[in-house]
Design a protein that fits this description.
The chain folds into two domains: 87 residues, no CATH class; 107 residues, Beta Barrel (OB fold (Dihydrolipoamide Acetyltransferase, E2P)). It has seven helices and ten strands. The strands form two sheets. Strands 1, 2, 3, 4, 7, 8, 9 and 10 form an eight-stranded mixed beta sheet that branches. A two-stranded antiparallel ribbon has the order 5-6. The chain is globular, with a radius of gyration of 18 Å. The two termini are 22 Å apart.
């Protein structure tokens, strides 16, 4: 999970997104007025995650005017246009995610996260391969777990991020992630990839 600082204007966005990609992206060029998936991936800090790149893009452009967003989106190459259509995140209230969210979809929700005891929420196991042995590892040992509250209804939804990442601040945030399900309980949670700190 990474903090995203939204772009403030079109020029800032283009300077970051039209970056030429990584050194091995031979057909991408910086400042060519074309934004590719590889360039978004570089800005998002991902190597192969198309869905995560689109999630980053949506959060990073969230504070731009509608006309600036349209101008940026008009610079997408064909592959990025296709991926944006396929993976465009859905913005939902925390109370709506359980009923309206689709597993595997990118979701953005807002609220104030409160850290909860992961062991009370995640009781299942991940199976990891160590040398030639499968070892069950409690899911609760892998995630920091939060409840995020719907300001309108008071309903909460579970979000989680890897313990290897920084903890979410306990202030109003917009989080973006992929809707996931615990295999043993069928309970849905949002695995957070990026977050934006909302202005107070």
């Amino acid at each position: 999970m990474e903090l995203v600082v939204p772009f403030k204007n079109y020029e800032d966005a283009m300077a970051t997104l039209d970056n030429g990609g990584r050194f091995y992206n031979l057909f991408n060029h910086a400042d060519d007025q074309i934004i590719s998936q590889a360039e978004v991936g570089k800005a998002a800090g991902v190597f192969i995650g198309k869905q995560q790149g689109i999630l980053f893009l949506e959060l990073a452009t969230s504070e731009l005017s509608e006309s600036a967003r349209k101008d940026i989106f008009s610079k997408f190459d064909q592959e990025l246009q296709h991926n944006y259509t396929q993976y465009k995140p859905v913005q939902l209230l925390p109370s709506e995610v359980g009923s309206k969210g689709t597993l595997g979809a990118s979701i953005i929700i807002e609220g104030i996260p409160q850290l909860v005891d992961a062991k009370t929420v995640f009781k299942g196991y991940n199976i990891i391969l160590v040398v030639n042995t499968l070892i069950p590892v409690p899911i609760a040992e892998s995630y920091d777990v939060y409840e995020i509250k719907d300001a309108n209804t008071g309903d909460t939804f579970i979000i989680a991020n890897s313990k290897e990442k920084k903890k979410l601040p306990e202030q109003k945030v917009k989080v973006g992630g992929i809707l996931t399900e615990l295999n043993d309980s069928k309970e849905k949670f949002l695995e957070v990839n990026y977050y934006v700190v909302e202005d107070k």
